[in-house]
Structures are given as structure tokens and as C-alpha cells.
Amino acid sequence: MTAASYRADPGLAEVDVSVYRAGDYGGFGGPLPLLTLSVPRSRQATYAAALKAGSYERVWVGDRAAAPAPKLTPLQDLERLPIFAGTRAALLAEKLEQQKGLQTGGIRGGKLYRGSPLRRQVALTFDDVPHPMYFPLLLDVLGREKAHATFFIIGRNAQAYPYFILDLIRGGHEVANHTFHHVRLPGLSDAQITAELQSTNALISGINGQPVRYFRPPGGRYSARVTRIAEGLGLTTVFWTDDPGDFQNPGVETVEARFARHLHPGGIILLHDNAPDGLAALPDLLNVARQQGYVVDTVGDLTR
């Protein structure tokens, strides 16, 4: 299969394979693949023997790890503006906290709305990671541009493609929590919210051996209860200041124009790994930021 792909397109640097049972395939949020593997061109001649010997590290077999299986529907909403769920009084208190956070920057009450407004520094973040068709391309672009980013990981995606998580860690990037099933959190019980966050933390820490520090709620939907539980698990809830709308694929020039319009000190940029227009625009986005004197960093760098 991989040899045929390389013959069909000699310019490929890597071939990624995901095998599903035809009757079970449900796209995003459906059952996980039966098998995934990644074959870089440099491994093409040796991976088959390594796979047979059980020593090939860029493979995942579904039966080896059982994922949590609550009856939850993955959220299809895109992150546009953060959406707070709560009483009118709680909403007013959150708006005040958000306003202060955007003015002063830094972590407030377990939440990060913006970095320091006094430094020409921005954080580059990607949600819903990883998607196998696009993720290696994104890592390649960031590597060539010598840029680092924070990746908000969907736990079930990381479970199916653990070698991609290792790739991003080796590239000097930061791994963060985006729940296990990408679900709407405010309507869940405390136990369900905790399970979504804890299972993702455990999965990521099991891969990189480091604690997870940051979390972003799917769809930007959150409540005081969600952020309280996250903080109790050692997670800072991270929002964003700049959403170029790359997931809608509005055109590369549109993504670039939106990005440039909202670029400001302490900004947190929201992108996705499976948006072709955002991927194509990324080198120009980084170039625009650098030309204007900005340092592009991870969320962790932004808070230090």
C-alpha cells in the first residue's frame, strides 16, 4: 500500500495509513481506526520487517488500548468567540473578569485571555489535533519556519496517532488538552467533565512523560464549573484573541488579512491543523508577525 503511494507520487516524504472497518466508519467522532501507521520515505525499505518483528514505533493497533466510551456526541461547532454558560450574575462576573484579563494580560483565576500587552509577543495555537492528512505537513512548515506552537489535543485523536504527538514534542512544540471526545462541557456532570480532562491528561503524559498545563474547551463553550474543575486538575483554561477563521477555508488572502488586522501584543492566535487555507497561509502569517517585530511563541512562553 505505501509502496504504491510512493510510486504514484515520488515527491511524497511520508505516507500515513488509517484502516477502518467499512461498516463502522463514522468520520469525526465515529469509531477509531483498527490500525494506523506512518511510513517516512527513509523507512520505506525497512518498516515492513520492523512491523513484522513488532518493533516498529510508528504504528498503533486499536485493540491495544481501550478508550473511555461514554455516550457523548462530539461537538461540531467551531471555536469563534468563547461562549459562557451560567446565570446572569455569573455571566456579568465573567465579562468583568474577561475585560480585566484582556487589559492586563496573564493568568487570572486559572484562565488566560491574553499575554502581556507590554511585549510584542504572540502565541500560536492549533486546535483539534492531530489529523493524519494534514498534521505532518503542518509540522514540516513549522520546522522550516523555525516556529513553535501550542497544540490543543483531542485525546481520541492522540490515542490513534501517538507517534504524531511524539513528533510534535521532538519538534519543541507544546502539548495541551482539548478533551478526550471534543464534547460540549457545560452540560456534563462534574464526573464527566473530570473524566474528559483526566483521560486526556493521562494519555498525553503517558506519551511525553510531562504534566499537561493548558486546556481549551471545545467550541469555546465553558462555565465557571468547567474552569474550576480544570484548575483543580492543574490546568489553565486558555482562550484566544485572534481567530482568522481558517477552518472555513475562506481563501488564503482572507486568512492573512484577518490575521494581520487582529495582531497585537500578547495575542493568542487560533488555527487548526486540518484547514488547507490556514496551512497555505501559515508562512506568510509568520512573516507578517516577524516583520512587525513580534516574537511568535507557545502559550507557555507567553505566560513566562
UniProtKB/TrEMBL annotation:
SUPFAM superfamilies: Glycoside hydrolase/deacetylase (SSF88713). Residues 120-297 form the NodB homology domain. The keyword Endoplasmic reticulum does not apply. CDD domains: CE4_NodB_like_6s_7s. The keyword DNA repair does not apply. Keywords: Hydrolase, Metal-binding. It comes from the Bacteria. This is Peptidoglycan/xylan/chitin deacetylase (PgdA/CDA1 family).
